[in-house]
Specification:
2 copies of one chain form a homodimer.
Chain A: H1 3-11, H2 17-26, H3 43-51, H4 55-64, E1 74-79, E2 85-91, E3 96-101, H5 116-124, E4 143-147, E5 150-159, E6 165-170, E7 175-181, E8 190-193, E9 199-203, H6 222-225, E10 228-236, E11 241-252, E12 256-262, E13 270-276, H7 292-295, E14 301-308, H8 309-316, E15 323-325, E16 328-331, H9 333-338, E17 342-348, E18 351-356, E19 362-367, E20 372-377, H10 378-386, E21 390-393, E22 399-401, H11 403-406, E23 407-412, E24 417-422, E25 427-432, E26 437-442, E27 456-461, E28 466-472, E29 481-488, E30 505-510, E31 517-523, E32 531-535, E33 550-551, E34 556-557, E35 568-572, E36 575-583, E37 586-588, E38 591-595, E39 599-606, E40 615-619, E41 624-628, E42 633-639, E43 644-649, E44 662-668, H12 671-674
Parallel strand pairs in A: 11-16, 36-39, 38-44
Antiparallel strand pairs in A: 1-2, 1-32, 2-3, 4-5, 5-6, 6-7, 8-9, 9-10, 10-11, 12-13, 13-14, 14-17, 15-16, 18-19, 19-20, 20-23, 21-22, 24-25, 25-26, 26-27, 28-29, 29-30, 30-31, 33-34, 35-36, 36-37, 39-42, 40-41, 40-43, 43-44
């Protein structure tokens, strides 16, 4: 941007011409120019000495610093956990670039704070009749949409462990467009896109008796009446919506289904889901039974679910093979078996991660109570299925493939292995919760020759209790490598004491060389559960909305758009509708007169076209704050329940005369109250 | 912390003895030790070259980097604006260390998300009958409590421009303890502590007709019936509460009262408030009147309010001189005049800041439409009052001191001067919104000799549209200097494009030398309006609560504390009360059986004593998530409105067996529904 243009934007739409012209003519010559002194050659050494930096630390400083005005190379799109949001971090600076509100309100961004659009999104995404509108979610696994198995930078989806739903966020404006409450799913820990984003596939974590009347059955009927589901949600990538008639579910046994991944390359059409609690323990620690931590850890092996999802799509098209349960087609467990849609592969008990190497040849699983990483060969799994090489069936009749027939490698890596990610040089990286380490190992052929395959080659300590880890592009056909981030659950002493609630700790690790190198610690807000790392250059966001009077939710012209000169206040019975504009530096109208008991509807259009010229509409008393980006039209409505004088004002510091961007909602008392 | 202790904490309370013992005995020997390679001497140059860093940029990198595991020196306690929170940044790293929820919910921290304590705090802090509970606020000016005019690190208060209230946050656990809704104040842009935190003093921004029936009067009666107030709220620093019977208000003319500061040293007992809109414009841009930006900018001068607050305290003790309005004592405007409590000093129109040099000798004001910083001498103001050196009275009868009799210096600094802060070397720094600069100038005697006083000595560009700025300890008798942060309202092109809503930009500036040096840019969430910077070593927080079964809100033993072995589920009519515990790695109880329509009350005690061992209680369907820090007891209650099976689980990743920390709320259908 050239300086003249920048200056025009910063100064904005000058409506107070006289005052500013007067000021500008005075000039501001102080006789001092900004400093730009050259640094003596030895000053870096001096600073290192003054600040007690070791050479390693100085190297990390220079590797992570993004100078003022320059941009990060990568963006890490991270879940906020039970903060219900998505957090964006820049890499290598690890600066928190933005938070996108999803399941929980963000009053700064006007999300869920009196804005009619977000209120509708949150309501539609809730459990429904008889239960409150959800104002939180446990946002766990953001996934970037894929084209040909690579990030296309268009959409992000994110599941909610607390509620069984999926949110769809546009990367054009970094805003949530809709939340789809999945029927027959009370929870979903994880969801993924297929290779071309045809489907969003989401498994339940907690099984429930969703087919029973009232969705209720005693916990004693857990094995007979509780079931999990995996949902195949047809994604309309033009609209950013789920197409329910083209979606379906596959009924699953009442294990806790967990993470999952869709195949590619040799595993194209396959879908893998981890499970735990194949013991089907239900707890009951005040009823004479062991707690879940004991009950769900009895068996040595749980089951990796291997689905033929492309076949399931065909089965779901046959109405005789599905039933509609709570509005969505379901393929029942007997049909799953009859149609050979699913097989189990034994996996070390209670695993966290199921990951797929870039080409799709190996599935990587780690049982958290087993100090090994297990690599399954997709070809071996396919052959075992073809050969019916079973070791038995589970209690529901699902065939279990022989473990040895599927396993490719078993690498001893350390205590508490959880998740694995991959770089662009044939290496895997596994997080270890108990050891607090990241261990680097080599993938088998064709990534490395057999004699160099499945070997541990490096290990780095992290701080502390790492859960997920992520590397740039790891979940795709084309990883970029370079950086890895450890998402550590505990920070203990890594940051200043700020009371009993500690931040979690994101650690940036340089993986460009043969040895990993820990670069920096970053405290977090929320629970940054998992992430995806994408080069920033792939993103194509709008810096301002494409037209004035734009509906951010529907991403098209707003029916309530108001241009300057078109402002109005209209009364229709007891409803007062305000079609207003906001610009630097006033609201129009700036006085709105209503009567106690009236319904008041505000439609505000920010008529600015300059980048960054966001205005807010903060209204006293009625709990409303809108954030209105340049070009956007945003609405609020409420009943004026109480007489009085309610100022409103711009909540975004927009201009030199920002403090004057004010107005009055005057609510006249009812006559009978007055008289 | 030694390694053995750290390991014990990380592994936690081992309840699954057998499984873990088995694992630990296997060992994790991978034959690889963590890397700690030395850096070649020239590698810093190589990294600079590879990353294109200039010597200036490399210097900034080394000055700002806080190595992994090391701590920042200072903490910046920053307002989150209409995010309704307080943000904590580390200096020099500028990492976001924490967000403290205040006026708006934070579902991660369980604030306002089904927790009975925070629900009560938010409700008590709302407008009251007839208006909704506020779930946002425009948190503008955090202030750290003072002892002898210096930060004591005990409390933070923060006002709300949108609602006229003050929140009180403890720096023992970094949590909000209470929100006091100030009567007769619809808004408060700013509030400060007196020198020993005896009072919190808060002015209204928007005047309202608070004495009228229904709090309503037509805007046409603005001059006669609308009034501002400045509240003197007696602070009980032991309890962290406002003592209403010892509090009072001073009625003010219907100007927009803005920032303020309490005197010290020669200005001890004085209180200074800026004002704007002494024109008493009300807008009306759809009623044939000019918008506020024009109407409120007509006069060349507004009024700096100078109050004798210690005298006002005495006047307020005399019942004959106050009236009680909406529950609080008010000194009316005629009494203010009769008792000589307030004088006006002309100030350049529409100023933003009123700041006091460390020793309290000069008051610094900048009219944003005047390219000068004005320094008023406290001694001259006192003399003008004593001499009755008036130039007239305002329309309400307040005497106006002669401008020239009070002014000490008038420094030309640039366009759009707003706020000033001070270092420990006799310098002031003023932000300039229109120029986007920070200008450094010298304070007058005794800080500098007369020939070196009131001179501009340096200027640095900031990016862009700076509002407040802050330097370590600037608002106290003892600034620390070293670092200055520019809180810039716009970032335009400084960060990657992330849609139409841009972050704001915090810029760290090194002020330790004669020339300012811009070190780094940091994007923000929220609107980080103003801040205070304190050395971290002054803070004395709890790392865990002092006992198991602690009530975080009341900061004492909880009446609902439950220890292990004391857990219970009790039914009393249609109320089911659960007194439970949570520990690594289970809830007890983990099955709760109720009937549709029952009231369900959960009291959970986290029985952990290890630092960082926070547990969550996330309940499906009923919109509840608690965050339960080590030792804390937290509660939730709701009606089980809908039959079904509702899992609950720990939302903080607490341990290796975290995924197993689950339970079931079973809501049995009513018999009539079932049969």
């Amino acid at each position: 941007m050239n300086d003249a243009k920048k200056r025009r934007i910063l100064l904005g739409v000058i409506t107070l011409g006289a005052a500013l012209a007067m000021i500008l003519s005075r000039g501001s010559g102080t006789g001092v120019t900004p400093s730009a002194a050259a640094v003596p050659a030895n000053s870096l050494d001096q600073i290192m000495q003054d600040r007690g930096l070791t050479p390693d630390e100085a190297e990390a400083a220079l590797k992570t610093f993004v100078p003022p005005g320059k941009h990060d190379e990568f963006m890490m799109i991270t879940s906020g956990g039970h903060r219900g949001s998505i957090l964006l971090y820049g890499i290598p600076s690890m600066r928190l670039l933005k938070e996108i509100p999803v399941y929980a309100p963000d009053t700064w961004q006007g999300w869920g704070q009196g804005d009619t659009d977000s209120a509708e999104v949150l309501k539609n995404g809730s459990f429904g009749k008889g239960l409150p509108v959800q104002t939180w979610g446990d946002l766990h696994h953001p996934q970037i949409s894929l084209t040909n198995g690579k990030y296309d930078g268009e959409w992000v989806i994110a599941t909610d462990k607390s509620a069984g739903r999926v949110a769809i966020i546009s990367l054009r404006d970094f805003k949530t467009k809709n939340i789809f409450k999945i029927p027959n799913a009370n929870s979903d820990h994880h969801g993924v896109f297929t290779d071309n984003s045809e489907y969003i596939i989401v498994s339940t974590f907690f099984p429930t008796p969703f087919s029973e009347p009232n969705g209720y059955a005693p916990i004693e009927q857990y094995q007979t009446k509780y079931r999990g589901t995996v949902s195949f949600l047809r994604f309309d990538r033009t609209k950013g919506e789920i197409v329910v008639p083209e979606s379906f579910q596959v009924e699953l046994p009442p294990y806790f289904q967990d993470l999952s991944i869709a195949g590619r390359g040799p595993s194209d059409g396959m879908f893998f889901i981890n499970s735990m609690n194949t013991e089907m323990a239900t707890g009951g620690d005040m009823e004479g039974k062991p707690p879940m931590e004991i009950g769900a850890s009895q068996r040595e092996m749980d089951y990796l679910h291997v689905l033929d999802w492309k076949k399931a799509v065909e089965v779901a098209k046959d109405a005789s093979k599905t039933k509609v349960v709570n509005g969505i087609k379901v393929i029942s467990l007997p049909t799953v078996i009859a149609e050979n849609l699913m097989y189990f592969v034994p996996e070390s008990k209670s695993p966290h991660g199921v990951d797929l190497v870039p080409g799709g040849e190996y599935v990587i699983v780690s049982g958290k109570l087993d100090p090994h990483v297990s690599a399954y060969s997709v070809e071996k799994i396919k052959k075992a299925i073809a050969d019916k090489n079973f070791e038995g069936k589970d209690p529901f009749g699902i065939p279990i493939l022989k473990y040895d027939a599927c396993l490719e490698a078993h690498i001893q890596t350390g205590l508490g292995p959880l998740h694995s990610v991959f770089d662009n040089q044939g290496n895997g990286y596994t997080s270890h919760f108990l050891d607090s380490t990241v261990v680097k190992w080599t993938i088998g052929p064709p990534y490395n020759p057999p004699d160099k395959a499945w070997k541990v080659v490096d290990k780095v300590s992290v701080h502390y209790n790492i859960g997920h880890l992520q590397a740039a592009g790891s979940n795709t056909r084309k990883p970029w490598g370079r950086y890895l981030v450890a998402l550590n659950k505990w920070s203990v002493d890594r940051f200043p004491n700020m009371g009993p609630l500690h931040p979690q700790n994101l650690q940036l690790i340089d993986i460009s060389g043969p040895k990993m190198k820990l670069l920096s610690d970053t405290p977090t807000i929320g629970e940054p559960h998992n992430s995806m790392i994408i080069p920033i250059e792939i993103l194509q966001p709008w810096a301002v909305y494409p037209e004035v009077g734009f509906d951010p939710l529907k991403m098209k012209h707003s029916e309530y758009a108001t241009l300057q000169g078109e402002e109005s206040i209209k009364r229709d019975g007891t409803t007062v509708t305000v079609n207003g504009t906001v610009v630097r530096s006033h609201f129009k109208p700036d006085i709105v007169r209503v009567k106690e008991g009236d319904k008041v509807v505000f439609h505000w259009t920010n008529v600015e076209t300059a980048e960054d010229a966001t205005h807010g509409f903060g209204l006293h008393g009625y709990n409303v704050n809108l954030s209105i980006d340049p070009g956007a039209t945003q609405s609020a409505e409420f009943i004026a329940t109480k007489a009085g004088v309610y100022p409103y004002y711009c909540t975004e510091f927009c201009s030199a005369l920002h403090m004057e961007v004010t107005g009055w909602l005057l609510v006249e008392p009812k006559k009978d109250v007055k008289g």
